[in-house]
Design brief:
Blueprint lengths: L1 H6 L1 H19 L3 H10 L3 E2 L4 E2 L3 E3 L9 E3 L4 E2 L4 E3 L4 E3 L4 E2 L4 E2 L2 E2 L15 E2 L2 E3 L4 E2 L4 E2 L4 E2 L4 E2 L4 E2 L7 E4 L4 E5 L9
Parallel strand pairs: 1-4, 2-5, 3-6, 4-7, 5-8, 6-9, 7-12, 8-13, 9-14, 12-15, 13-16, 14-17, 16-18
Antiparallel strand pairs: 10-11, 18-19
């Protein structure tokens, strides 16, 4: 009852509708069927996208209109994507298994004792062209991963990642610059 009082009837109703939609989504076992269903819900999904058993949550907040997946993206099994704010994956982005993408922070109800220190917030997450996120990595709200960057497995990304870098650790730190192949023809 407290949730109804704090967030309102319409948000609770939207939560219920999205819970049903996610149950239907889970029944679609083929990646093209999953992509088509997400398009029906308002997501912008490019060509050649492969969606394994991905979980979406907070769909009742920003919704699927805030999900953009470019061409030839791959999202592995058991990834969790928070749709409290926008999630944008450019072309050829790969999320390995069990990647978590968070777009918000909220410690609890308005009177929670930590709200003073950690106020509720949301911010989009952007992954630019050709980046890779390793298994069990976590991306926090507001980060942008630059093009051709590699996030090592198990990393926690708390700040933007520049283009062409390998980052890893908790919190993720730059480990080395990824060298581009020599473009000269012999």
């Amino acid at each position: 009852m407290r949730a109804l009082t704090e967030i309102g009837f319409w948000r609770v109703l939207r939560f219920a509708v999205m819970a049903v939609a996610m149950a239907v989504f889970r029944l679609a076992v083929l990646p093209p069927c999953r992509a088509a269903f997400l398009r029906l819900l308002g997501a912008r999904i490019g060509r050649g996208v492969v969606l394994h058993d991905v979980r979406f949550f907070n769909c009742y907040r920003r919704g699927f209109g805030g999900l953009r997946l470019g061409d030839n993206c791959f999202i592995g099994d058991e990834c969790m994507i928070d749709l409290a704010d926008e999630v944008i994956l450019a072309d050829q982005v790969t999320l390995a298994e069990r990647v978590t993408v968070l777009t918000h922070l909220n410690v609890g109800y308005a009177d929670h004792p930590l709200q003073e220190y950690f106020p509720a917030m949301s911010a989009p997450v952007r992954l630019e062209h050709g980046c890779f996120v390793g298994a069990n990595a976590t991306l926090l709200a507001g980060v942008t991963v630059g093009p051709r960057s590699f996030i090592a497995a198990g990393s926690v990304v708390t700040q933007d990642v520049p283009a062409g870098y390998l980052v890893g650790g908790v919190p993720a730190k730059p480990l080395r610059r990824i060298e581009e192949k020599d473009a000269q023809v012999s």
